[in-house]
Design brief:
Blueprint lengths: L8 H9 L5 H19 L2 E4 L3 H13 L10 E5 L26 H9 L2 E6 L33 H8 L5 E6 L5 H7 L2 E4 L19 E6 L2 H11 L24 E4 L10 H16 L3 E4 L8 H16 L17 H12 L2 H14 L4 H22 L5 E5 L15 H5 L6 H6 L3 E11 L2 E10 L5 H11 L4
Helix pairs in contact: 2-3, 7-15, 9-11, 9-12
Length: 473
């Protein structure tokens, strides 16, 4: 069996444990597929030169009788998650030559488990974008239609999994950056509860919003990968303690649908697929009811004040002096101006400027202060909804994948891609996007996503309901 014929982590695990395939054969299959396809897709910024060595080491561990969920499993990792000794550029000229000096906690856990790390995937620069077009090293293309975007900012990870160039991948989600590309590429994407996966070694974009999560082919694989990287970490002050009680599986579920919110510009055929998904849940014994979320329509505006403010603070460290790109200017002040102007792309500069503005004297209370108040209102509104439902359902995106270049000159149109995803990040709850159905554009069948949101630490609810939607359980 060729390595690239494997369809899930669970299948690969069974084949590896029974000796029907070796880790080296599995890894070689994916390297062959990357060589065949990635010249067109551009999911990877770098394929690691020691992949086969990692695989051989995994085979030795397997031969010794060692077991493990990820021993010998080939995975890809987004370029903003540090791997010691490897370039970590966040797809930016600013960090083009930066080498990570330590492992992120997530990468360290995967290394310890014996996973085979294939390479680092393309992304929107510093995770700022919804299409992977802001990468300083060129856009990634959607494997379903190479004239279209894969979504972003974790577009490279999503395209690698969808294009059969990785068995699974890690991405990061600040406002939908795992779920949106998962939906556009037809794979599963999980945004975990904030703090469930350590942010240690994840390049900060929005510190109160960022979270690492999996992109996989099946819900079961997302559950397995989440289990491998989750857990308390003393290196992350926001990490959730392991003794926090998690929501466990129930016999009966109720799912709420904020129908008034779904009227905000969702494509008609995509909404039809969403309704079909609700019918599937109902057929599996899930009770579906309408709910009212009066403040959620303000989530996008709230997010696009809080996020740039945190971006402005987090990216201040890239000044051309301590590390990163340096360009000589006429004086010290000009050094900063030239270095940041050359190192950051247009979208990154836009968000830094916006964030600096909303944090400036005279505007802080009017913008950032009110956004934080709105955040609290949205959190209370959603928590109230969870008193009567176990999960909330909505489409992942308002439309399928759009064409490359279609929205680059219209930032507001691009930001609207996040309308259904940002609320989960604002209030820190988990959310899952699963592929459900397709819609036709230009004679191409494009995948769309069905999104589920659950209360804090309610990942088990998402996995259970997601498996019902994907016929896994």
């Amino acid at each position: 069996m060729a390595g690239s014929d494997v369809t899930s982590i669970q299948e690969a695990r069974a084949l590896l444990d029974t000796g029907k395939i070796s880790a080296t054969e599995l890894a070689q299959g994916y390297l062959d597929r990357i060589k065949e396809k990635d010249g067109t897709i551009h999911a990877y910024l770098e394929v690691f030169d020691d992949v086969m060595k990692q695989a051989k080491d995994a085979d030795k561990r397997l031969a010794s009788g060692e077991k493990g969920a990820f021993l010998g499993i080939p995975l890809a990792i987004k370029d903003n998650i540090l791997i010691q000794g490897r370039t970590a550029s966040a797809a930016s000229r600013m960090l083009e030559n930066y080498t990570a000096t330590y492992d992120s906690t997530a990468a360290a856990k995967l290394k310890e488990s014996g996973a085979v790390l294939l390479g680092r995937t393309n992304m929107d620069e510093f995770a700022m974008g919804s299409s992977t077009e802001t990468s300083a090293f060129g856009a990634t293309k959607n494997p379903h239609d190479t004239e279209r975007v894969p979504g972003g900012s974790s577009g490279g990870s999503a395209a690698a999994v969808a294009g059969d160039m990785a068995l699974a991948a890690l991405g990061s989600d600040t406002g939908g950056s795992i779920r949106q590309p998962a939906a556009l590429c037809g794979v599963v994407g999980l945004k975990p509860t904030y703090g469930s996966v350590s942010r240690h070694g994840l390049m900060a974009m929005g510190s109160s919003l960022d979270v690492i999560g999996p992109l996989t082919r099946t819900v079961a694989d997302a559950e397995t990968l989440f289990s491998a990287v989750r857990g308390h970490d003393r290196m992350d002050a926001t990490s959730v303690p392991d003794d926090r009680e998690r929501i466990t599986r129930k016999a009966k579920y109720t799912v709420g649908v904020p129908r008034a919110f779904l009227e905000k510009g969702v494509d008609k055929d995509l909404l039809e697929e969403f309704e079909r998904g609700l019918d599937t849940l109902t057929a599996h014994g899930v009770h579906v009811q309408d709910i009212k979320l009066s403040t959620i329509e303000h989530a996008l505006a709230t997010y696009y004040i809080i996020m740039p403010a945190e971006v402005s603070a987090n990216l201040a460290r890239f000044d051309g002096v301590r590390y990163g790109l340096h360009v000589d200017g006429r004086d010290r002040k000009d050094d900063y101006r030239e270095s940041r102007g050359a190192g950051f792309g247009r979208e990154v500069r836009r968000r830094i400027l916006l964030g600096t503005y909303v944090l400036s004297s005279g505007y802080y209370d009017a913008y950032y202060g009110k956004a934080m108040q709105a955040r609290d209102r949205i959190r209370r509104d959603v928590r109230t909804a969870f008193e009567s439902v176990d999960a909330i359902a909505m489409p992942t995106t308002p439309a399928p994948a759009f064409k490359i270049g279609e929205k680059t000159s219209d930032p507001l149109s691009m930001y609207l891609e996040d309308i259904f995803t940002v609320s989960a990040n604002i209030i820190g709850i988990p959310a899952l996007s699963v592929p459900y159905g397709t819609v036709t554009r230009d004679s191409k069948e494009l995948p769309v996503g069905f999104q589920l949101l659950a209360p804090e630490l309610g990942e088990e609810t998402l996995f259970t309901l997601g498996k019902k939607l994907t016929a896994e359980g």
